[in-house]
């Protein structure tokens, strides 16, 4: 009887094994994720079935510039801030391999908001330098999700740059676009002030008080300006994957000169149309789509505007193509009836200052580290945002006033070469010698002039305020 029961049980077990195998998920093709540095990201997914996606991420503690002339020790995923974007498809199985490089000094891990499970992978991946951890998860929910380090103190790890995003494309895929970019905002807390030179350390009390020194796109002051500006052509469909690493500050994300055709709010699958500014929380995201219609520079900002103009949250999308006056006219400016055109007040000629090669070199160094991020490397400025310093009628006529602006800042409208600009320039934390050097550098190198101000005169301006 027992023998018959055992045989019957064995038969049932064999049958169940056959049934279970018939319903088992077939072996998935294995794809190793190609990771690229932001603002670029992996290409759109075209496959129509799930895969096992292998993601190899390194943790790298690196010292590099947070602003020109200012260094900071970043903790990163893959050596970049933000960490390199991961792009998978709904239903994929993701195998994540995390290496904490031997030269690092601290333990790290990763918490992915796309993971369904406690800690988002943090417990499985907590490792000391010189170790590797692996775990797998199923990408169940489509959307754009933040990942970050969750090692204590979590706020410090995130504030040092340990965040990125993972995009889980829906099964049906995403619509085709001409340009895709990956941008994240983060807040940084340094011991020195904004653009203070030298190597800066992390300031824990500033972080606790939520008073960032910098609020930045892609981990550096000027990361998306000048030669690093994003690019598109008129009538391109542009898609930005935007997120906020934090650790603390919410973004009022806006592009000056563009209206978002669609905003997939909270990084999900539903969208709002015709949006001017979208709120993105720390640890959150949004997908924005828009189509530039005319050429020029579109300016990315956090519309909490002192963050843009005083803490670095500014970037550019340079659009090329033909003008379209029917959409954006050049405009006409003239005096009101009965009004006289204002003239610049007469200025006493500045005393000659000896042209010294060493001072020009010093002036260029100050310009590159302090001025170039806004006024651009050759002083050409940004149309409608930052006035030019090169070939500038304002500078040539009023060099003393330019030195005064560097010392004390300026807000409100300014007219340069007949064009109107309306912005804010904060006072610069420069000593008298550096102010004189940079003013003389701009005069000689950009305006075919001569040295126009001395450190002694700068000191007198400083006292006169």
UniProtKB/TrEMBL annotation:
Name the domain of life this protein comes from.
Answer: Bacteria
Q: What class of enzyme is it?
A: oxidoreductase
InterPro entries according to UniProt: Cu-oxidase-like_N (IPR011707), Cupredoxin (IPR008972), Cyt_c-like_dom (IPR009056), Cyt_c-like_dom_sf (IPR036909), Cytochrome_c-type_DH (IPR051459), NO2-reductase_Cu (IPR001287)
Chief location = periplasm
Which Gene3D superfamilies does the UniProt record give?
Cupredoxins - blue copper proteins, Cytochrome c-like domain
Q: How is the cofactor bound?
A: Binds 1 Cu(+) ion.
Q: What keywords are annotated for this sequence in UniProt?
A: Copper, Heme, Iron, Metal-binding, Oxidoreductase, Repeat, Signal
- Record carries keyword Glycoprotein: no
Q: Which Enzyme Commission numbers does its entry carry? A: 1.7.2.1
User: Listed GO molecular functions?
Assistant: nitrite reductase (NO-forming) activity
Q: Indicate the segments forming the Cytochrome c domain, all copies.
A: 358-446
Q: Which PROSITE patterns match?
A: CYTC
Q: Which cofactor does it need?
A: Cu(+); Cu(2+)
Q: Which Pfam families match?
A: Cu-oxidase_3 (PF07732), Cytochrom_C (PF00034)
Could you tell me what reaction this enzyme catalyses?
Answer: nitric oxide + Fe(III)-[cytochrome c] + H2O = Fe(II)-[cytochrome c] + nitrite + 2 H(+)
Q: Where in the cell is it found?
A: Periplasm
- Residues spanning the signal sequence: 1-24
Tell me the SUPFAM superfamilies matching this sequence: Cupredoxins (SSF49503), Cytochrome c (SSF46626)
Sequence similarity = Belongs to the multicopper oxidase family.
Q: How does it assemble?
A: Homotrimer.
* Protein name (Swiss-Prot/TrEMBL): Copper-containing nitrite reductase
Q: Write the gene name.
A: nirK
